[in-house]
Amino acid sequence: MKPFSDYHSHPQGHRLQPYDEALLQPWADSARAKGLTDIALTDHDRYHAGVDFDALDRVRAGNPDLKIRAGIELDTDPVSGAAGRAWVEKNWEHLDFVLGSVHHLEAAEMFDSAGQESQFAGRLIDEIYADYFLRVQRQAESGVVDCLSHLDLIKIHGHRPQTDVLTLVESLLQCIGARGLAIEISTAGWRKTVGEIYPEKKIIRRARELGIPFTTASDAHSHVQLGEDYDRLGAVLEECGIREVAVYERHRRTMVPLSRA
Ligand SMILES: [Zn+2]
Ligand SMILES: [Zn+2]
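Above: the input record for the complex with zinc ion. Below: its predicted structure, written as tokens.
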């Protein structure tokens, strides 16, 4: 069983690049080549100025065989986070899907960037995990997200808590479940130092017990990465008993059986 949707992608990469057909068509071509039928464009909110809904509509018209969702990855950047949130609120009706992310702890730099392992030095890893999950919970409670991305990103550099991660993440999962939000299962962790899917399987299983729906994602920063490692992802979904995934249109969720995809 191979997933058919990729709900985390960055056409602009890590710089402002206004949406037009030249930028977006390679993403549609790559989706089609990889057998994906439903993708969400979720650039970082700090590049919201590049998002052009009219350009996206033109690309949709030229690729009627694909569902291409308008999305954004909203994080808690101390500099751009507030403006990002204001943009999401203003454009809520144009957006299909909003990912909630946390890339920042106390420092101004994203903790998940290369070289930022220093943010973990000399600190109790259990406390960092608890702090991180609390920040994700605030994103879940923000009222402007549909789904939480890379839920256990805090493990990215390979730091593991002494306490069972399920104990640390339980109240966040309860919050996500109570609010009817989804969690993404992302192959991106496989290409990082930690070498593990986001979130790890025991968190996926606990979320499933709580009835939380899942999206599937690659966090592609190049169209080449779209749907990366999806054969391996399909095996994990099967192993965890996941038979359907969430897709979104104007924030309205539909569950699609994987077997029919
Ligand atoms: Zn992210
Ligand atoms: Zn991302």
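Notes for the reader.
Residues 244 and 256 are 5 Å apart (CA to CA).
Residues 5-257 form a domain with the TIM Barrel fold (CATH 3.20.20.140).
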